[in-house]
Amino acid sequence: MAETTNLVGKIVTGLPEALVSFLRQAGEVAASQGQHVYLVGGAVRDLLLGETHLDIDLVVEGDAVALARELKPDADAWLTIHSRFGTAKLKAGEWSIDFATARSETYARPGALPKVQPGTIQDDLFRRDFTINAMAVSLDPSRFGELIDPHGGMDDLARKHIRTLHEKSFIDDATRIWRAIRYEQRLDFRIESVTLRLLQRDIPMLVTISSDRVRHELEFVLKEKYPEKGLKRAGELGVLQAVHPSLKGDGWLAARFARARQIGLTGDSLARIYLALLAYPLAVAEAEQLIAYLRLPGTLARILRDLADLREKRKELEHPELANSEVFFLLYSHVLPALLAFKLATGSKMVRQYIDLYLDKLRYIRPALNGDDLRAMGIAPGPRLKDLLHRLHVARLDGVVTSRQDEVEMVRRLVPLQT
Description:
The structure is a single chain. This protein is α+β, with helices and mostly antiparallel strands. Among the domains are: 1-159, Beta Polymerase, domain 2 (2-Layer Sandwich); 299-363; 371-418, no CATH class. It contains 22 helices and 11 strands. The protein has helices at 8-14, 17-32, 42-49, 64-71, 121-126, 153-159, 169-172, 175-187, 193-201, 211-222, 227-237, 251-260, 267-279, 284-294, 298-312, 314-317, 324-331, 336-345, 349-360, 371-376, 383-397, 404-418; strands at 36-40, 55-61, 78-82, 87-92, 95-101, 103-106, 115-118, 136-138, 147-148, 161-162, 190-191. The strands form 3 sheets. The protein has a 7-stranded mixed sheet. A two-stranded antiparallel ribbon has the order 6-7. The protein has a two-stranded parallel sheet with strand order 10-11. It is elongated.
């Protein structure tokens, strides 16, 4: 008979006291209703690795939604119910808890969303991506902390292996290819040899998943602490090229990512810069192919298009004697993430200086006079007024005028010449 492993000590020392109390309460309430509830997935993996994990997944052999409703602690906690899927999400303070009814999955065809039906904890663990994520901990009061590890996940943690549960894993869901790479690089593990062979065999299956799902997996990689590691590995395996054949996870990219982390951005803002840097080597047409393939939303598409445009303007921006107004009008129509990515990507000191000049000074310079002021001076609305405002802006940028009175005198000089 196999020896039972109990993680109660790791739970008590690895999780906040309030969260431990909540998990005990979940087990007690479920047991009182004749149900069973389990801690599953990444939280179990991280407990065994000695790391804290505050995004908790619970699987219920029974009614997950009903259990979540009963456990909602107070009015300040947020509970989101998805009755159709038998799931719920509870947000309380700094931790969040997902409830799901134990289920089994079957795939009608490669890449299809699975057909789901209620099942046992064993069924639920078998549908997981890798053995290290296919472990559970019982929260039943009589077995609190008992590890359930039917696929050898704890042994694979000790070996530092990423291993699938069966040979059709990547065929069923090719997004697992990206996840294998992400976990491997995040945890400093290695994809186990048989799993690696299956992964390389099934790279063509990436075409079976939707663009949205590919984009989400790429976004997950870009939100890793060191995304360049995952992109390099994806490039070595040929996975990155399945997104676009011209993408590279090379040393150039790694150096730019390291610089990007030094500019003070975090979260989604930093991930946008990473994506722009990844796409920087692409020509305009290639950038459009990437935008279309990943179905990038408007904000991200704009960043990539602006960056491609800035690459086209690179020669102009390398001129050492541009007037301030020339710098402004070369750069002003481009969104900030594209400008920051261009500054990080370019090897031209002159271009970087111009971008700094624009970001630090030029973008804030505006004429003192506006359209109302010009109309009050007797200038009718129309092309003339618009042209005068533009000339005033250029003069301000280049230091030709430095005060409101200078602008008034400039307008008075110009208007007679145009009548």
